[in-house]
Amino acid sequence: MTGGAETPTARLRMTLRRARVSMRKAGVDLFRGDGSDRLALASLLLSVPALACGTVALPEWCAPSALVLPIVAGGLLLRPAGLLALYAASAVALIVESAVLDSGPRAVADRVTPGTILVVAAVGFFGFLIAQFRTRVGVPWRRGQTMLFDLRERIRVQSKLPKLPRGWHREMALRPAGGQSFSGDFVVAARTNGGRTLEVVLTDVSGKGMDAASRSLLLSGAFGGLLGSLPPHAFLPAANGYLLRQDWDEGFATSVHLVLDLDSGDYEMYSAGHLPGLQLSAGTGRWEEKAAEGPLLGVYDGAEFDPIKGTLSPGDVLMLFTDGLVETSDRDLTEGMDRLTGEADRYVSAGFQGAAWHLIEAVAKDVNDDRALLLICRA
Q1: Which of 188, 298, 202 has the alpha carbon at shortest distance from 246?
Q2: CATH number for the domain harbouring residue 203
Q3: How many domains does the chain have?
Q4: Cβ neighbours for 298, distance < 8 A, ≥ 6 positions apart
Q5: Which of 170, 258, 260, 325 has the fewest CB atoms below 10 angstroms from its CB?
Q6: Residue 34 gets which letter from DSSP?
Q7: Residue that is last in its domain, among 111, 139, 167
Q8: pTM here?
Q9: Structural domain of 294
Q10: pLDDT tens digits, residue range 26-61?
């Protein structure tokens, strides 16, 4: 290649390289859990004899079972090696407490009973399991919630729809299964061709909720990078190849790719095993299915995806959605789509502002599956 031109792949590699350098400088190793836990270990080891002394001197205020407090804290803060040292100190403290309390004229409630020992041991066992899990994952407890929050926010940001010119309205609503924060459904969108074209991809990853969260996050990032970097007809074949290279045990997904000309209202829709879209014609007042042909993503290489073409005239509405919205164990697809269009008819006269979330509430509020709905309206 001559000249100073850069390919999209070269720019992506340079961006990733800079990101890795920035993460190293930011101390990402500490986030992975490689930071020292010596201060926490020292503090917890000092608390064990303090609690033992309190039990011996003031048994009415400090019970022998109070030793579970540093053990619980150790399970959340320490690595397994440090946790074993804390357990050894706690065992010695229990022995000392038992010897001192049983030798004097103490009440039975103040003594170290077998039940107390079993409670402390059980808490220690579960604390050790928690410590092993944190070590295997590589995320310290004090930063684990931050990491999950960042992942959720990244999915939300990647699913944000771009602003459209006057005369267009778009909105998207997403509700994960079981009220969780993560979903196997996601949307990526961008305005391409100098802002004259809207490209939207709605994807339903196999699985649901937390089970599909990691794959959903990975695919949404990859699809967002591909969108706009490739011609529309090449997007789903590239996404299919990417999914196949992951070699996941449950690695298939359905997806629909909408390419909308914001000047004329003409669109092309590519589908990879996804449900048909629904278009409301302002002229007839009827909903029409828009179904393109194509296999699931991640099933076989060399898959081809043929588009269906259409036009959004003034007053028309296009709905794209995932199967959790219209299909359940006790309701087939046709019935679900009829119910969805019936509810959507209520918004025709008043406009579809805020309709996406209310439609999910109306037709699939308590469904144990991920649900996503995308609405695009032309005024």
Answers
A1: 298
A2: 3.60.40.10
A3: 2
A4: 240, 243, 244, 246, 248, 251, 252, 253
A5: 170
A6: I
A7: 139
A8: 0.68
A9: 153-378
A10: 433 333 344 567 888 899 899 999 988 988 888 778
